[in-house]
Specification:
This protein is α+β, with helices and mostly antiparallel strands. Helix content is 40%, strand content 21%. α2 crosses α4 (85-94) and α14 (338-352) crosses α17. The structure holds histidyl-adenosine monophosphate. Histidyl-adenosine monophosphate (HAM) is lined by residues 83-85, 114, 116, 121-123, 126, 128, 130, 132, 260-261, 283-288, 306-310, 312-313.
Length: 423
């Protein structure tokens, strides 16, 4: 038997140069979120199980079968977060944010955990970037959040985007619709898949999401939630669409988009990609309004709206090569012999102090191998230090792009590199 230990199934290592693509993506997200006034929140990975059971809903797939739940040594039931909206709402209530700020906007970049069946774009540890806004009931914030998400992907050059929007209703819209749906589906019960037969009792709205062909055929004739919205929800949803039109965000209304979490009230939305890289896991991001969650967690009645995107899926759609994004060192110093290596270290430290990436060779290898290495790393400039350079205190910097040489006093290396890179 092999004594190698592998990573846990569905939980992946992220290695360079791929991590450069993540940094690039995350920094663009941070920039777009900052422009809209969102500040970062970090919460613990582990929370009380009750938070997710109450927040996301007992009868959702996530809570029923996807949570990493365990008892700690004090017999408390804890869960590794499957999402962050519940954690953020808990933090909002715990720190009485409503007393400090009428409007709070948070974002997060963090790993989530769901015990799901794996495939491309679906993992058991995955990362989300998310945005949550509290204290604004007006429909314009729903539209602004959708537009922000759409703008982010557009800016990254992701092709084939589409935005679907829906309203799952608020107040008694949902129970009314639920009844209409159960009335419609009950005569078809025997033809539904086993999961949907169960959902008919526990959470009939989830049936609208089922991918089993026979269920899909039955669902095609189901009543639409949009015909069961009260005046308030309908007005809100129409205003969201009007604002999206003003902002020039292309969207379509999809009454079957009900989302997999129970806390939504009113607007819900998804950003879908037509990229072939993603296959069936083509939902890049999802979100919506959840006006009752803060109250359910013991806080005041504070309206809220948010979204989260999956970073692994985003990375699969972003054009560009990770190695190019990772770049290479500005300067590679090759050295022959112990004294030359120490001098190379001193020079490298001087140039690094200006903020530049400098590589030197610590191993005892020949000049030819060192230049090959500089080339492989994609170094912009090289400098060789041997006995001559040590003796004269002078050297030659070589531009790896054009081959030009620049003669310099080694003592001036930091300023010379700064001048050459600025040119
Ligand atoms: P969600 O739809 O469950 O919503 O997840 C949001 C996004 O996370 C998905 O669109 C997808 O890109 C990514 N994602 C979900 N599960 C996986 C997985 N197993 N592997 C890879 N990526 C995945 C939420 O989590 C809500 N908290 C969003 C929200 C924020 N609603 C209001 N505020």
């Amino acid at each position: 038997m092999s004594n190698k230990i592998s990573s846990v199934r569905g939980m992946n290592d992220l290695l360079p140069p791929e991590s450069a693509k993540w940094h690039f993506f995350e920094s663009r997200c941070r920039a777009v979120l900052a422009r809209h006034g969102y500040a970062e929140i970090r919460t613990p990975v582990v929370e009380s199980t009750a938070l997710f059971a109450r927040g996301i809903g007992e009868a959702t797939d996530i809570v029923e079968k996807e949570m990493y739940t365990f008892l700690d040594r004090g017999d408390r039931s804890l869960t590794m977060r499957p999402e962050m909206t519940a954690s953020c709402a808990r933090a909002y209530v715990e720190h009485s944010l409503h007393m400090r700020e009428p409007v709070t906007r948070w974002f997060y970049i963090a790993p989530m955990f769901r015990y799901e069946r794996m495939q491309t774009g679906r993992y058991r540890q995955f990362w989300q970037v998310g945005a949550e806004a509290y204290g604004i009931a007006e429909p314009t914030i729903d539209a602004e959040q959708i537009a922000m998400l759409h703008a982010l992907y557009l800016e990254l050059g992701v092709p084939g985007l589409s935005v679907s929007v829906n309203s799952v209703g608020a107040g008694d819209d949902r129970p009314r619709y639920r009844q209409a749906l159960v009335d419609y589906l009950s005569p078809h019960r025997a033809a539904l898949c086993a999961d949907c037969q169960r959902r008919l009792e526990t959470n009939p709205l989830r049936i609208l999401d089922c991918k089993v062909p026979t269920c899909k055929t039955i669902i095609a004739g189901a009543p639409s939630i949009l015909d069961h919205l009260g005046a308030e929800s309908r007005g809100h949803f129409e205003a969201v669409q009007a604002a999206l039109a003003v902002l020039g965000v292309p969207f379509h209304v999809d009454p079957s988009a009900v989302r997999g979490l129970d806390y939504y009230t009113g607007t819900v939305f998804e950003l879908v990609s037509s990229s072939s890289e993603l296959g069936t896991q083509n939902v890049l991001a999802g979100g919506g309004r959840y006006d009752t969650l803060i109250e359910r967690f013991g806080g005041p009645a504070i309206p809220a709206v948010g979204w989260a995107l999956g970073i692994e899926r985003a990375i699969l759609t972003i054009p560009g090569d990770a190695a190019t994004l990772a770049g290479g060192p500005v300067l590679y110093i090759a050295a022959l012999g112990k004294a030359a290596r120490l001098e190379a270290m001193r020079l490298a430290a001087a140039v690094r102090a200006t903020g530049a990436w400098v590589e030197i060779e610590h191993r005892e290898v020949g000049m030819k191998a060192q230049f090959k290495r500089a080339d492989k790393l994609g170094a912009r400039f090289t400098l060789a230090i041997g006995d001559d350079e040590l003796g004269s205190g002078r050297g030659q910097i070589r531009d790896m792009r054009g081959g030009q040489q620049t003669e310099l006093a080694l003592a001036d290396i930091a300023t010379v590199i700064a001048r050459l890179t600025a040119a």
